[in-house]
Amino acid sequence: MHITTLFIWFILYSMAGWVYETLYCSIKGLKWDNRGMLIGPYCPIYGVGAILDILLCSNFTNAMSVFFACVVGSAILEYVTSYTTERLFHAVWWDYSYLPLNLHGRICLQCSLSFGAAGIIVLYGIHPYMKQLTAPIPVPVQELLSLLFMAVFAADCALTADSLAQINTKLEATVAAIDSQIAEKYNKFIENAKQNLSDGLDNLKEKISFEEYRERRMHEEVNKTTASLSWVQIRSLCSCVSFRHSSYSEIGNRMKNVISFRKKNRDVSENGENKTKKTG
Q1: Model pTM score
Q2: Which pLDDT score, from 0 to 100, does residue 273 have?
Q3: pLDDT (tens digit per residue) in 223-257
Q4: Pairwise CA distance, residues 138 & 4, whole Å
Q5: Residue 44: its pLDDT value, please?
Q6: Ranges of the chain with pLDDT below 50
Q7: What is d(CA 78, CA 258) in angstroms, rounded to the nearest whole number?
Q8: What is the CB-side half-sphere exposure of residue 106 using CA atoms within 13 A?
Q9: What confidence tens digit (pLDDT) does each residue in 59-82 have?
């Protein structure tokens, strides 16, 4: 088995995983959901899982052995991938915390069992056709395809990693800006409270204005940060489920809401323009 063939299989299975995830999540959420952390139409974890399934389980004598191996293997792969991406980018791309029998939200029994069944389907149902698809391709052509796929995939990984690093920098700067402004306002509030200890009503009004100020500054900083994002950064931000850092998570979710709101307004505006043109 040539290494270039394995890499082509990896890319094809990664693309198949993206198609499955995108269709499943889009149907479940009743709206388009472009899955995967990368820009291109592939989810590498599916490609890695499929290749490991092929390499490690092809010599197993029965389907039950394949099932249990894929259950354990997928759990390890998911946990390691989730932990690594979280440590690198402070973000998570799936969270099973709402499902029973989960471990830190990274893996759960239900999904591991599903991946066990998927391992059987890939090995006995899909891969024979995958081999037939790639077998007629000469090795030199496979090498050329692998180089092209590798160049695109590597560039995608580099762009995504850079955009995620920049998003974290922007989130950190946004949190710092909000905290400094809130701290300044809070210090003024404390000074006014000390000067007006006898007037409880004024203190209450000041506290209310402080909360309103915090919300207003949060709104302004989130809008400013969102406006500065590039298309790649917006894609990376929308691809992740949440950020583990509580402050990042709140601001990240608000930024997603702003992006979604602007997209809806843009779609409504475009539909209105199209109707006007047709009427005219």
Answers
A1: 0.81
A2: 59
A3: 888 888 888 888 888 887 777 665 677 788 888 88
A4: 11
A5: 94
A6: 201, 204
A7: 30
A8: 17
A9: 998 999 999 999 999 999 999 999
**Cα 90–chain centre separation:** 11
- Tokens coding 177: 């800006």
Encoded tokens for 139: 């090795």
As a whole number of angstroms, the distance between CA 41 and CA 59 comes to: 31
CB 100: neighbour CB atoms within 10 A? 8
Which residues does residue 102 pair with via DSSP β-bridges, in sequence order? 108
For 195, what's the count of Cα atoms within 13 Å in the CB-facing half-sphere?
Answer: 8
Is residue 37 within 8 A of residue 239, CB to CB? The reply is yes
Rounded Cα distance between 176 and 189, Å, is 20
Check if the beta carbon of residue 73 is closer than 8 Å to that of residue 53.
yes
Q: Output the CA torsion 63→48→81→250 (10° steps).
A: -110
Closest CA relative to residue 3, chosen from 37, 45, 51: 51
Which residues have CB under 8 Å from 58's CB, separation 6+? Answer: 123
DSSP secondary structure of 176-216: HHHHHHHHHHHHHHHHHHHHTTT-HHHHHHHHHHHHHHHHH
pLDDT of residue 264: 74
Number of helices (H), then strands (E), in the chain: 9, 4
Amino acid at 256: K
Residue 49's pLDDT is what? 96
Tell me what pLDDT residue 96 has.
92
Q: What is the DSSP letter of 93?
A: S
CA distance 24 to 12: 18
